[in-house]
Design a protein that fits this description.
Aminopeptidase; 281 residues; 2 domains; GNAT family N-acetyltransferase; transferase; alpha+beta; GNAT_dom; single chain; twelve-stranded mixed beta sheet
């Protein structure tokens, strides 16, 4: 493959960037990742992407790979929101070049670290990231439960207002609780669903109901390592929604809620992500 140049993503026609993303993720590890053009802005917002800080590898005027950046000033970090390459561009050096550019620009911006999430089973991507100095912070597991558990609780918490829930989550870094971006307010606000939030003691849960009678847990955080309050919140879900299955995506840290899910009989999903970080001196 001939040479390429790296350009700012914001200078590219959004339709062309969306088309490159669709082509790059057509053979994704967990299945084709297809987004309608109308869903593209919401996806970028969910990932926290800022196109001004994102870059695209272009060859003969056409995008062949991309690195979408999500600065996280609240954690003094830049997150690699998503990176991909068209099948024909893989192995051409575009991905390493984009990653090196991402790290260099984050370092020039003076942030303390760069971070990303990657499926543990995506060995090719992991080799690239680990070869550039990224190391595991934690595993991020997904969970599911068919519902109808005997572990229900009659103590149903009163709903809390979303601004209050988001403020509580926003205070977690100051409390020493590190969270991946997609369970934090910046990402949750971009979800196209009606969110509900409950809190008990040191724990909080943010969830939604879907049309297929399934509950989606978008954020479960317990600041107490014992996770008794998280367990009580999930038990309350069983009681309030006895006929609905519960799904937790692959963003759940074991130390802030995962252990509670496991103790209540949730099944761990086969694929999981690794949360990786590289300090920048």
């Amino acid at each position: 493959m001939s040479s390429f140049e790296i350009v700012a993503a914001g200078a590219l026609d959004p339709a062309r960037l969306h088309a490159a993303f669709t082509a790059a993720f057509a053979d994704y590890l967990i299945g084709p990742f297809e987004l309608a053009p109308a869903q593209w802005p919401q996806f970028l917002a969910r990932q926290g992407v800022e196109l001004a800080e994102s870059r695209v590898a272009v060859q003969r005027g056409e995008p062949i790979a991309f690195c979408l950046a999500a600065p996280r000033p609240e954690t003094d970090s830049w997150r690699l929101g998503t990176m991909g390459a068209l099948p024909a561009a893989r192995g051409s050096g575009t991905a390493p070049a984009l990653l090196d550019d991402f790290v260099a620009r984050a370092q020039a911006a003076g942030v303390g670290s760069v971070e990303l999430e990657c499926f543990a089973q995506n060995t090719r991507a992991l080799r690239l990231y680990e070869g550039r100095g990224f190391r595991e912070v934690d595993a991020l597991h997904g969970w599911r439960h068919a519902g109808g558990s005997a572990n229900g609780s009659t103590d149903i918490p009163a709903p809390i207002e979303l601004p209050d829930a988001f403020a509580w989550l926003g205070a977690c870094p100051a409390a020493g609780i590190a969270l991946p971006l997609q369970v934090t307010p910046r990402s949750l606000r971009a979800l196209p669903v009606t969110l509900q939030a409950w809190r008990r003691g040191d724990a909080q849960i943010v969830f939604s109901e879907s049309a297929d009678t399934r509950l989606q847990v978008h954020s479960l955080v317990d600041r107490d390592p014992a996770q008794e309050d998280a367990r009580a919140l999930v038990a309350a879900l069983f009681s309030r929604y006895p006929r609905q299955a519960i799904h937790v995506p692959q963003l759940q840290r074991q130390v802030v809620g995962g252990a509670a899910l496991e103790s209540l009989g949730f099944e761990r999903l086969a694929l999981h992500q690794l949360w990786l970080r590289r300090p920048l001196a």
